[in-house]
Structures are given as C-alpha cells and as structure tokens.
Amino acid sequence: MYKTKVNASELHSSSAPDTLGARFHPLRPASVISALLIACSLAACADSNPEATSSNAAASMNAAGDTGDLAETGSAEEKAAKARRAGGGSAVQPAPSTPAPSTPAPSTPAPLASGGTSSGAVNTVDAIVGDMRQMNDFTLKGYESFKNGWYVGPGETVMGNNPNFNNNPSWSIFYNNPSYAGVVAKAMLPWVVIFDGVNHAASNVAVEMRNMRAYVKKRSNGQWSLLGGPTKVTGTMYGKPNTGLPATGEIVVSSTNTSATIKVPENSGYFWHGWWNAGRIAVDPYDIDAFVVTVEARLVVADSSRPDDRARAQVGLQVGADYYLDTQQYFRESYAPAIGVSRTKTITNEWQGFNYATLSDVGAQQPGGGITEAALRAAPPPL
After folding, report:
1. Could you give the CA distance from residue 245 to residue 269 in angstroms, rounded to a whole number?
2. What is the largest CA-CA distance in the chain?
3. Which of 93, 245, 265, 336 shows its CA 20 to 30 Å from the CA of 8?
4. Can you say how many angstroms the Cα of residue 109 is from the centroid of all Cα atoms in its chain?
5. 15: exposed, middle or buried (C-beta count within 10 Å: 0-12, 13-18, 19+)?
6. How far apart are CA 297 and CA 264, in angstroms?
7. Distance (Å, rounded) from C-alpha 276 to C-alpha 49?
8. Each residue of 237-270: pLDDT tens digit?
9. Residue 333's pLDDT band (boundaries 50, 70, 90)?
10. SS3 call for 316
C-alpha cells in the first residue's frame, strides 16, 4: 500500500543538512544539552542529502569538543563515506530530488496543488503572527520534561534577518567562534517537523503537505520576492530522546511535484522531520529585511481500507529555516544555525497555513532580528 521513501541503509548513502541539530541544540536552558546528545538517536543519524552539510558526520567529534574546520567541499559520495565512518551526527536530512539551486527561483505565480484550494484561501497574516506568538497547542509526546524553547513555544527567531554568524545565542557553537569572525551566511533552507502529542491515540493518519514556499523581503526596495516553491517536502523518521531508535525511512502515501502525504509514525518513539524539495537557496546577506516560510497541511486517512480514526489524533506541525554558508559548502559543526522556528500547531482535517516569520516583536528573540508585526501587516507577502 505504501512506498517507503528511504530504507535504513540508504540513510547512510549521502550527506544531509543539519537543521535537526540546530533545533535540538539548547534553545535557552542548559539542561537541554542532553536532548541534543540523545535526540533522534544521534549515533544513528547519518548524512542523507546531497544538498546539505557534513556537520552530521562530525557530530560525535563536536560533542567531545572538536568543532573542526570552517567548512568543506566535496562530492556527495565523499561525504557519504565520511558519514558511514563517523557513524552519523545530530542533524540528518533526506535528499531532495535535485541539487540545490545556486540562485533564487523566479517569482512566478504559484500553481494550485491537485485537489486543493488556493494559498490565499488557506493562509492569512493573522495565522502567520499567531504561529509566532502563541504557545504550542499541546504537550509533545517524548518531551514532557522540557519546559522552555521550541518544546513548549512560542515561535522563536534565532538569527532572523541578520545572517552574521555571531548573531547566535551564547550556547551556539558559532557564537564568538573565531573561525566565523566576520562571516555571513549566503543561503537558507526551509524545513518542517511533525510531532505527536501526549493524547495522540490514532494509528491510521497521515499529513498531507503542499505548496511549501519561502519569501524574502528586501531592504533595498521593501518588496517581497519568492525565493522558491511551491514545492513538496521529503523527510525521515527519527527516534525521540531516550528511545535509542535508529533513523528510518518515511512512509509516503502519495506525492506530486508540489505535495506529499506522509504517514504519521505508529510507533510513538518516532517523529518525522522533513525539508522542502527545492534545496538550499542563495540569498544576499546584506539585503534581507525579513523571511516568511509557509506550508499548507491537513490530516488525512493513511489507509482507506482501515477505519478513519482521525478523531483520536493529536498531531502538530512546526516550520522553520536554517542558514548556510552558501549553496555548496558543508559545515563541520554538529548543526546549521537556525533562522528560526514556529510554534507547534495542531493539524486538523481542514487545510491550514503553517508559518515561520522573522518578527522582531512577536515570539522569543534568540537573539533575533526581523520586522515588526505592524510592518508585516502593512505589507505582507503575496500569500
């Protein structure tokens, strides 16, 4: 019935971006460091995306205090070999079907996903602001003991619209790091995560996601431009803290160029982490006023031959993005620095927009950087 996107052996076949590690690094309390070391079975999380960083392969070294060099280049095969030797790292991502583009996608009108309505009918500026201001809708299963950061909400802006590597929280490996003195990021990569809640009791549900887009507002002209999308997402299932579960392939119920339906793991020890299919996108580091990353999602029945138990589901989605040195270089650090992350919002049977935005006065600033809510409302992106 289902197609397994990647099997366990394939997860170690190429290199991957480090978004997950950025999110599992402490987002305020020092006690969350342990979460970084155990989340997603770090020893099993290997590089799996020719589009991303090799920091995953070096996570074990970094946990021991070896941050490595600034960056490296090399073929996906070389990074795959390194990942296999190193035994994985803290932030794994699945391979997009195409290499990361080196220039932004043209700002063309977005086609509608099959069977759906337009983005304008689904998403609103109120939804964007709410996704950054409000707390998580429920307690995340497997993270009940965590009381701060993305584990509970609200949305957080980390580097935001300031891609200087020193614009990071004090816990970040990039903060005051001499190797990154004066260095700015020149690429970004959006991502999504699906979490189940403590009251989740469904076993036959999937999340249909479509039309993932990223927008940048330029300082130079005050206009929003489409960086990429609409596109689908791809991902991998990772073990939650203290489970010891290895990363494993996602279960794809259906997929098109702009949408993908992913089965929610029946094993509550797993969560799903994915990335848009457009790869890393080049950005001008000196012309960023704001970012908005958005994806539409709804809850569907995974297997039509089984009972519809969506009423027993408690599933939510986070969206965010990370910075990269450029579209080619590969970090040696254990994670890529985050632009920011939204709260976890409940996925319902109806289409909704799920959003991250660099807002300077909404949500937590870690340390932050963006536009005000008033500025967003006065001139929003073309949703």
Report:
1. 7
2. 58
3. 336
4. 24
5. buried
6. 13
7. 12
8. 999 999 999 999 999 999 999 999 999 999 999 9
9. confident
10. strand
Degrees, nearest 5: CA angle 321-264-116: 70
Instruction: Give the three-class secondary structure for 242.
Output: coil
Q: Are 12 and 82 in contact (CB under 8 A)?
A: no
Residue among 14, 3, 8 nearest 51 (CA): 14
Q: Say if residue 84's pLDDT is above 50.
A: no
Query: Which of 172-175's residues contact partners 24+ apart within 8 Å by CB, and which partners?
Result: 172/25, 172/337, 173/62, 173/67, 173/333, 173/334, 173/335, 174/333, 174/337
Token pair 């090799």 is found at 54
Plot region of 67 (φ>0 → left; ψ -120 to 50 → alpha; else → beta): alpha
CB 285 within 8 A of CB 186: yes
Beta strand spans in the chain (E) = 3-4, 71-72, 156-157, 187-196, 205-217, 224-231, 233-239, 248-249, 251-255, 259-263, 270-276, 281-282, 290-301, 315-324, 330-331, 338-341, 345-346, 352-357, 364-365
Q: How far is CA 280 from the centre of its chain?
A: 12
Torsion over CA: 195, 321, 111, 99 (sign): negative
Instruction: Output the 3-class SS for 186-213.
Output: CEEEEEEEEEEECCCCCCCEEEEEEEEE
C-alpha to C-alpha distance for 160 and 4, rounded to whole angstroms: 35
Measure Cα distances from 155 to 149, 203, 319, 340 in Å.
8, 28, 10, 8
The dihedral sign for the CA sequence 276, 356, 102, 381: positive
- The encoded tokens of residue 84 equal 């296999």
